[in-house]
Amino acid sequence: MTQPSTRPSTRTSTRAEQRSARHRPDPQRWPDVATVPTSAVRALVARALLRSVARRLNLRVELPGGALLNRTPPLDGAPVLRLAAPDAFFHRVGSGGLIGFGESYQAEEWDSPDLIALLTALARSPQTLVPPRLQWLRRWFTARQPLEQLGTPENARRNIQSHYDLSNDLFALFLDPTMTYSSAVFPSDSHGEPLASWELLERAQHRKIDRLLDLAGVRRGSRVLEIGTGWGELALRAAARGASVVTLTLSEEQQQLAERRIADAGFADRVEVRLCDYRSVTGRYDAVVSVEMVEAVGRAYWPAYFSTLDRVLAPGGRVALQAITMPHDRMLASEQTFTWIQKYIFPGGLLPSVEAVEQTLAAHTGLRLTGRQGYGRHYAETLRLWRERFTARAAEVESLGFDGVFRRMWTLYLGYSEAGFRSGYLDVQQLLITRLGEDHPR
User: Most exposed among 44, 69, 312, 382, judged by the fewest C-beta atoms under 10 Å?
Assistant: First the structure.
């Protein structure tokens, strides 16, 4: 981890903190989780801010022994934030903002009987967590993204490998048999709500892939480029249509498993899995597809990414992307902020807005966004299924060598992401991109 940590506090500890000390995270592996930073002034500010947030969002903040931090009791049914080690919690949040909030959860200093309800309440209005009159304090609580995470060709491979090369066996524990690590599209009820269950997930992933391939016009004889292989399911579906596919990944573990799955399916002659940065790809393709890859590129490299799409797209071709998006104003407000997700889960990433995609295309390419469809509620349900399966198989995760800090980290990551979609703060969209002035009949 890259953030410096100060010396531990010498203040009086609660019993919960003393118990936590006996099970302290490995300081070599988790230096900033194992060490509580110290700043009395910032801790006092964090306590005052939490009282304010709890009042405005109707949160129940419980201290050890059941006492409430709230000066006014919350309404019935309020989401619960249960502080096991409040002193450590406020010092972490005061020193590190939302990074400290996440590290405090990893350190078991807070929890909630309904984590998703709590995180969803916080995600509904992130811009108001700090009151307007106190926004100047943000510079205390926010760090800048480290240079080593920027999406240069040298850094991009390391960023990708830090997540996707954790272990194929780990991902297999909570993904469905397709090994698809992106939003599914479930059938919907009469109100448009997704009908999601584990039994329906595999078919829902195929429905998502087939919609994207249809959007790109993939058919027999199509030359297809996929940027971001995953574990190969989209390439398999495209090859089954009679297309020839070049698919790019920076993850050696993904490459190995994808090649094995493709060979087992009998499509090795139609699919080439390249360990290759998107900037280095050659050739011309009738269809370019990419699922939740642009989020890892970083804003400084969006021009290079979309210019690559323009360069390799054959005349009359189509680009179909699946992308997680956020509101444009929030993207602008957070683009320079170093987040807990960037520190521990996806180094170097930034979720784009639809406006940012359109602006980048217009400024750097001859391509234009010509169609889009969002289905964020389906991602919330996909994440719920992954999270439930991940937590249910905690013992198997541990047997792979992932400790309790890692398991809480991933529980928070999956829950945090789910809450983003449930609150409407995040969306996932399939985007159709075509060349300006070309006719693209469907």
Answer: 44
Q: Are 286 and 195 in contact (CB under 8 A)?
A: no
Q: Which of 226, 315, 309 is nearest to 273 (CA)?
A: 226
Which of 23 and 25 is assigned the larger pLDDT?
25
* Burial of residue 73 (number of CB atoms within 10 Å: 0-12, 13-18, 19+): exposed
Q: Is 396 exposed, middle or buried (0-12, 13-18, 19+ CB in 10 A)?
A: middle
For 71-92, write each residue's pLDDT tens digit.
888 989 999 999 999 999 999 9
Nearest-10 crossing angle of helices 233-240, 198-215: 60
Q: Strand (E) positions, 186-267? A: 223-227, 244-249
Nearest to 86 by CA among 20, 6, 1, 137: 20
Contact 198, 222 (CB under 8 A): no
Comparing CA positions, the residue from 432, 438, 439 lying closest to residue 361 is 432
Residue 198, H or E segment:
helix 198-215
- Amino acid at the residue 58: N
Nearest to 365 by CA among 412, 420, 307: 307
Strand 367-374, strand 223-227: pairing: unpaired
Q: Which residues pair with 343 in a beta bridge?
A: none
Tokens at residue 161, please? Answer: 């490998």
- pLDDT (tens digit, 9 = 90+) per residue, 253-312? 999 999 999 999 999 999 999 999 999 999 999 999 999 999 999 899 999 999 999 999
Mean pLDDT (the chain, rounded): 89
For the chain, the 3-state helix, strand and coil shares in percent, each to the nearest 5, are 50, 15, 35
Helix 86-106 and helix 404-422, axial crossing angle in degrees, nearest 10? 90
Task: Please report, as a single letter, which amino acid is at residue 407.
Answer: R
For residue 228, which of 297, 298, 293 has the smallest C-alpha distance?
A: 293
| CA atoms of 442 and 439, how far apart (whole Å) | 10
Length of the chain: 442
Task: Write out the DSSP string of 118-150.
Answer: HHHHHHT-GGGSS-GGGGGGHHHH-EEPPGGGS
As a whole number of angstroms, the distance between CA 40 and CA 46 comes to: 10
Q: Which amino acid is at 48?
A: A
311-340: pLDDT as tens digits: 999 999 999 999 999 999 999 988 888 899
| Angle ∠(93,97,100) on CA atoms, nearest 5 | 55
Specify which residues 434 forms β-bridges with. Answer: 318, 368
Which residues are registered as beta bridge partners of 271?
245
3-class DSSP state of 324: strand
